[in-house]
Request: fold
Amino acid sequence: MRAAPSAPFTLRRAVPDDAPGIAEAYADPDVLANLLQVPFINVAAMRQRLAEQDAPGRTDLQLVAELGGRIVACAGLHPAGAHLRRRHVMGLGIGVATPAQGQGIGHALMQALLDHADRWGQVLRIELTVFTDNTRAIALYRKFGFRIEGTHRGFALRDGVYADVHSMARLHPDPPVLAWPPE
Ligand SMILES: CC(C)(COP(=O)(O)OP(=O)(O)OC[C@H]1O[C@@H](n2cnc3c(N)ncnc32)[C@H](O)[C@@H]1OP(=O)(O)O)[C@@H](O)C(=O)NCCC(=O)NCCS
Reply:
């Protein structure tokens, strides 16, 4: 059951100066543990990554959500690799600060990223990994058409324990076609 947001939130593309705000949103151990971040997030490295994502030719889309003038969430689509034959694939990541969870922000970010992927970005497959006990995130991903494709054992060290993740992916439900009649 989703609570009403305490104030309207807005979504926009992230810029390098958002790095401190994103790091603050991710700093809560409950959020950090479910991402592949480590405590004492390297804000300078995050700022550089955000700047690099804006370089000509890059296809990343990184969004932030703002609530009450603060960044409370971040989510992005990133190329799955440099291989020509994997150009149709992107990876997805998302994190909502603990006090802002359960208010529809994760849903709105997913909707925005998938609209971009499906209608603008020429993306046919979106991949992610999620810790197997992260039921909230798995429920969100399932709602948006992601399916579990497999499980990786001991995938990442999480607060002192090697934890398992599911690989999930979503294929474009209705891939675009050419809009003119055949000759
Ligand atoms: C997972 C996460 C992104 C969801 O974002 P959110 O803003 O809290 O979610 P929303 O309020 O938009 O809810 C969207 C859906 O998430 C699921 N969800 C939300 N809260 C839930 C809860 N307490 N229990 C189970 N499912 C829940 C539901 O499917 C919900 O859909 P519904 O409201 O139609 O029932 C957020 O909790 C988060 O960032 N968690 C920490 C970091 C993380 O786990 N990131 C994902 C790494 S793979």
In short: Residues 2, 31, 34-35, 94-96, 101-107, 130, 134-137, 139-140, 143 surround coenzyme A (CB under 6 Å). The mean pLDDT is 95.
